[in-house]
Structures are given as C-alpha cells and as structure tokens.
C-alpha cells in the first residue's frame, strides 16, 4: 500500500523526537550518576568479584563495618586495677641495688649505728617476716595492707607503726625490698608520688630471694601485725 507523504513526515518527526528525548535523558542522568559514584567510598562502589565469589557492598554493611565505641567500665578505675596498670607501665628510674651494695652499706657492727648511709624498708607482710627474718636494720612497712603509709604525716605514721617515719637525710638512700622485687618497685614509685626525692630512692632488685640465696646476714623479726 502506498504511504502518503504526510504519514512519512509524521514518522520521521516522531523518531527524531524519540531519539532526542532518549539522548537528553542520558545526558541529564550521566552527571548525576557520575556525582553519586564519586561521593561513595571506594569500597561501596558496585561489586568486588573474584573467580570464586562475589561480594556486594551496601550501606548497611558499611555502617556495620564502622568501629563501635568502647565504654570504660567503672571497675577499671579501682585501686587494684590501677596497681596492676602502674606495675605494667614504664615509670621512674631508680638506682638498682645489688647484694654487694647492700652488704657494704650496712653498719659493720651494732656499736656503730651512726654509720648507716641507707634506710632499708621491707615491704612484705608481717606473716612473711615471721618465718624468714629480715635484712639487718630493716624496718617493715607492708605495702599490700598499708599502701597509704608514706602519705601519712610523721606523727600519724609513728602512731600507726610504732617507729619514726623513714625520711632519708641528704646523704642517705631509702631502699625498698620484698620477696622478689615486684612489690619493692611499686613501693618506690609510691614513695616518689608521696614526695620523696627520686634520686634518694632505690630498689634491691633481687630482694629477699637473692639475699637468702647468697647467704646474707639476717635478723629475727620481732614485730607484730600493724
């Protein structure tokens, strides 16, 4: 059937309009898609594929992948936790005393008590001292049960312990020891926090185990519970 010139003109115009609309739509959508793609994180664009699996990233998975905030429990601020924390962290550096150093610093005899360049502090509990004794001239300040001892005023300290608070003179050192050295280091840190001069605070690293192993002199402990 013959097609009229008018019908051909209508078809040509319709096709042109359709093509123009399609091109215009793509042109208007393309910038939008380009902006959306650039706004998304690299990990959320499309798919990441491999030969064995395909992983789809979505907004939900991105939110779930964010690190959750951590809350600090009130128990982490307890004194016992602080003690463990402080013992694990690097702290002040103290002079490390050895067996020979302690032996040389002790008075040569009980008749010369003025020759005492060191103050020895045994920080073990009284129950431990009853079975082992102490290094000669040492005083006992059990830090596990009396952790506030060095913070006390001098009169309060003497009332509680029965002897003067150990305060080194300018030419003296105060040396802490325990059974194996752990409590002694903690006691030294506490002493500095309480106001003692760090340069006058020392630690017998080997403590009682080293002293006993090397045959150091001992004194019987005659004190009681604080």
Number of strands: 7
Taking pLDDT < 50 over at least 5 consecutive residues as the criterion, the unreliable ranges are 27-36, 38-88
Largest beta sheet, briefly?
Answer: 5 strands, parallel
Overall SS class: alpha/beta
Quaternary form: single chain
The CATH superfamily of the domain at 94-106 and 116-213 is known as Rhodanese-like domain
What's the CATH class label of the domain at 94-106 and 116-213?
A: Alpha Beta
Q: What share of residues are in beta strands?
A: 5-15%
Shape: globular
The sequence of SSEs as H and E is HEEHHEHEHEHEHEH
Based on the coordinates given, report the CATH architecture of the domain at 94-106 and 116-213.
Answer: 3-Layer(aba) Sandwich
- Rg (CA only): 40 Å
Region (Disordered): 71-91
Biased composition (Polar residues): 71-84
Domain Rhodanese: 114-220
GO molecular function: thiosulfate-cyanide sulfurtransferase activity
